[in-house]
Structures are given as C-alpha cells and as structure tokens.
Amino acid sequence: MQLTLGPVLYNWQPDDWRDFHFRIADEAEVDTVVLGETVCSKRAPFFAEHLPAVAERLSAAGKRVLLGSAILISLPRERRQAAELAESGAFMVEANDLTCLRYLQGKPHAVGPFVNVYNEATAAWLAERGARRLSLPPELPMASIRTIAGTLPAVTVEVFAFGRVPLAISARCYHARLHGLAKDNCRFVCENDPDGLPVRTLDGDGFLAVNGVQTLSHTCADLLGEAVALAGAGVAALRLSPQRCDMVAVARVFRDVLDGRCDAAEGHRALARLYPDVPFANGFVHGTAGAGMVA
Amino acid sequence: MELICPAGTPAALKAAVAAGADAVYCGFRDETNARNFPGLNFSRDELRAGIEHAHRGGVRVLVAVNTFPRAGAIEVWHRAVDDAVAAGADALILADLGLLAYAANRHPGQRLHVSVQAAAANPDAIGFYVEAFGVRRVVLPRVLSVPEIAAIVREIDCETEVFVFGGLCVMAEGRCSLSSYATGQSPNMQGVCSPAGHVRYEERDGRMLSRLGRFTINAFGPGEAAGYPTLCKGRFATDLGTGYLFEDPVSLDAASLLPALRDAGVTALKIEGRQRSRAYTERVVGGFRDALAALAAGREIDTAALADLTEGQATTAGAYRKTWR
Lengths: 295, 325
Description:
The structure holds 2 protein chains of 2 kinds.
Chain A: E1 2-5, H1 14-27, E2 32-35, H2 44-48, H3 51-60, E3 64-68, H4 76-88, E4 92-95, H5 98-104, E5 109-111, H6 120-128, E6 131-135, H7 142-151, E7 156-169, H8 174-178, E8 197-200, E9 206-211, E10 214-222, H9 227-232, E11 237-240, H10 247-258, H11 264-274, E12 280-281
Parallel strand pairs in A: 1-2, 1-11, 2-3, 3-4, 4-5, 5-6, 6-7, 7-11, 10-12
Antiparallel strand pairs in A: 7-10, 8-9, 9-10
Helix pairs in contact in A: 1-3, 4-5, 6-7, 10-11
Chain B: E1 2-6, H1 10-19, E2 23-26, H2 44-56, E3 60-65, H3 74-86, E4 91-94, H4 97-106, E5 112-114, H5 123-133, E6 137-139, H6 146-155, E7 159-166, H7 178-183, H8 187-190, E8 199-204, E9 207-212, E10 215-220, E11 235-238, E12 241-244, E13 251-253, H9 258-264, E14 268-271, H10 278-297, H11 303-308, E15 315-316
Parallel strand pairs in B: 1-2, 1-14, 2-3, 3-4, 4-5, 5-6, 6-7, 7-14, 13-15
Antiparallel strand pairs in B: 7-13, 8-9, 9-10, 11-12
Pfam families (chain A): Peptidase_U32 (PF01136)
Protein name (chain A): Ubiquinone biosynthesis protein UbiV
Pathway (chain A): Cofactor biosynthesis; ubiquinone biosynthesis
C-alpha cells in the first residue's frame, strides 16, 4: 500500500507552504505528493513562485509529483490555467473536474476525488481514456471501493484516509460572506484559518469547517482501522490530506500500521496526540453517516 | 424559450401538460433519479401512460436517470435507461459518465441531456460531454452568472437549460456530500438530500430544534415557523457570529432575468419541484407561461404574480447575479 499526500486545501502562507513541502520531501514516507491550488484560483499566484522548487525537491527525493487541477472552473482565466496545466507535461496531472479531461484524453493522467467515480463502468471508461490513478470520492462505501478496485487491477485506486473531508464546493465564498465581504474583494480572509474555519451547530457541536468556497467536515478522516481491509479490496494507495499538524508523523503512523509495526488502535492513539481536539471519523467507508466513527 | 416543468406524479404531469408546459421531466420510483422521495415518481406503466398523454398534447417528456449508479448494481440504472427509451422518452437526463456511455452506445439516436448533477460549468466540460456522448443539451449548474451563461452559449455546440424557479442548491450540484456526512444518504448515491427519515423536531428550553441525524440544523423561537432542516439552509455558529452561514431559507426566482436569459441564448427554462403538489405545478407553470407570453409580446413580466407562488418564502436570483457570490 502506497501513501499519497494530497494537495494543501487551505490558504497557507506561501513560505509555510514551501517549507511544509520541503520537509515532506526530506522526511515523509509518502510515495506521491499532489501539488497545486485546487480550491480557489485567486490563491494560486501567491505560491506559484515556490512551485518549481518544491516539485524539484520532491522529485529529487524520489516522490512522484502530481499537479492537481481546480475543482470548480468557471472563469476564462481558470479554463486557461486548466488547459496549460494539462499541456505542460512535466508532471502527471490529477484532474478534479472534466474541464481538464478534455485536454488529457489519451495521455496518462490521474483522476482526483472531485470527479464523480461511483462505479466500475465509469472507472473503466476513464481508464480507457488514460486514467492511471483514481482517487475515489470520499463518500464511497467499502463495497463500491472493492468493486471498482477489483475491476481495474491495472489502475492505482486510492482512498481518502486522513484529514478533514471535503464535502462541497460552491460559487459562493463563505469566508468572504462571514466577513461581510464580496468574493471579488475578499482580502484573502481565508488565510486566517489555515486549518479551516470551525462551524458549530447551535448546540455547540463541531459540525463543519469552511475553507473559502469549500466546505469540509469538522471531523478528521481516520481509516487506520480499515487500512488492511482496503488493501485486501485492491486499494493501492491511501490519501493523507494536509492539516495543520505534523504530517510527517501522521504518514509515519500510517506506514507503521500498514507495515505491521503497530496495530490500528495504537495508531489511532498516536493520531489523536498528533491532531488533538478534532474527533476522528470513518462513517463513509462503512456506508453510514460520514461524521460517525464505527468501532 | 421552452418551459420545462416538473412532474413528480402522473397527476402533476397532467397538470403541467394542461397548464402549458413545452416539456415535463420525471423519473422512476427508485434510487435512479435525484428526487427519490416517498410517494413520488413513476412506475414503468405510469411512465408509458404519462408519455402517451403528454405526446397527445404535443408535450415532450424528459426522463431523469441522474444519480450515480451504485458499483456492482449498474444494471438497475441500465434498466432505467432501457425502459425510459422503450416508453418513448424524448430525452434522457443523465449525469454518470459510464451511464452516458451506455446510453450513447446502446441507444444511438436517443436524445441525451447532461443533468445539472454532472456539474458541467464551462465550455470545456460541456464540450467534453458533446464530443464523448453526442449530448444535445446541458442543464447548467447554478454557479453561473447570466453573462457567464451568455459566454458559454456562444462557445458550445449544444442547447442549454437553466433553472429559473423553485428550490435552490447553494453548493455545486452533484458535488455535495453534506447530506451523507450527516445521514449516510446523499443526492449522488440515493437521490435524496437531508432525507425526511433522518429529521426530528425537538422542543428544548422553549425553542423548537430541527435536527438532521445527530446535528441541530436550526432552532426556532415561539411564533417562528419551524422550517425543514435542509442542511445548507440551516443556522450555525462560528467565532464570527451565528446565522444562516451558507444561505438563508430562500428559493430561486429568476423571473426578472427572463429577458437577459433569452438574450443570452438559453434554450430552455426549468422549474424545480418534482416533490411539489399538482396544484403548485399548475400555478407555477401557468405563471411562467404568462411570463413567457409577455416576454414574446414585449410586455413587462408580472414578477409579483410569480413571487406569490413562493408561498411567502423569500427568494433570490442566486448565482445568476454575480453579487450573490
């Protein structure tokens, strides 16, 4: 089982973003790292200057680099970015929307968790057109994962295994709305919440996290307990989505559990120390409410 | 512009036909369509009869098979496609890539529309569906402004259909797992959002709480009507304040934008609400028929008459006005 570090979904300071990935390159036991701004095209220019150095350092460290495309593409500028990304050719592209797929047909590429792959027929159709990797939508239950992975042994099937789960994308920016700002003049207030802006119910229960135009779960996915079963189902990679915690250590915990150096329960406890204050969840893979934790 | 009207039941279909719909859309009574609500939708026999009735009145029937087939059970969705074609559907409304491929291969010549659930939000994504499956129309996601729609229409080789009235998704449709996060059931998989079976109303400290799964979605004081806990229209708390974080409990009303949508080159206007009553369908279809007649005659559209149909609920033009973002 391989480990993939997903793209940073939040608006981190460019230097933090660079240093985070440098450390991943030097220390993290991950096989693949996805780079690129996938949530909001307005943020992309800020760390673009660091992207070549980061990609090079990761490659030099033996990590496969993927470039993720934007999740929601509507502006002409965003379309151009997607087309350029698909045609750049230096690294494999992970398409998060069909916009990119138009340009990637026939070229080896990855399909990200924001493309709706719910069944084996769609997965096979994408594979025929060049998809070599499929990172499945986080809401898929185990039975669907098993069927898809079992049908496509030649494709690297990946499952979202750690991090706040992306649940929705919108044309509206909720960070801007909360701050009483217009999206076009947002002052990049999302940078105040590098781990997402907590959204509670009126009872005070943690519920969701806002990240600009994206809404994520309050809970953090933890599929350590399912990792062995997922491997048995044909899943070839687990995705760890960066949160504001020691992701090098998170990857080590996953590696240790996968390689049998510690059991899942011990791994859970280690994750809870690394990313405290946020409850863990695995409900989606069990076909129940995603917010729940099935023991 | 064509007027596309919801038909949640055979009775609503007849009402829509009588009230002047150009086309109605409907689905089978199962998880293959995105309004899989109890007591709604059509059996195979009802669909056949409904299509015959509509065709006698010169009205087309579009059949939505627009959830994403469950892995290992794809034949259920294939059967829905085959049966809709056999029943004489004028078009199928589909979202899943594999299902589009199946329909295009198995039923060449059958008119295919891209569902709003497919979230085709720009000319490249739409072009992808046109090139891959020969789709003839795309239902545009509710994330676009009218000028953006106009720009899309100029660039693509298929027709466009836009929602103008009824329920409003705040998130990009077909890309939202909020409901399954709270309940385990989602629009994409089960064809439901914030399903009634997971809703509870609970009185606490003089307030009425509306809950979905184990989460409180809203709380209402004395005298406040306790609304349905649709997840994205709830009241929540953040460090920056408490309120309708994502969207107020509003519905979509783009009647005032009909001239702009016509000028943008939109082919068809769609009314949401397969879950609504026959009487509602009749009134809304009639209202929009009048509005389109006024538009054609160069008269002013009576937007107030349509606003009455929202039954007192506040309305918005949503993403069609750029300021909504």
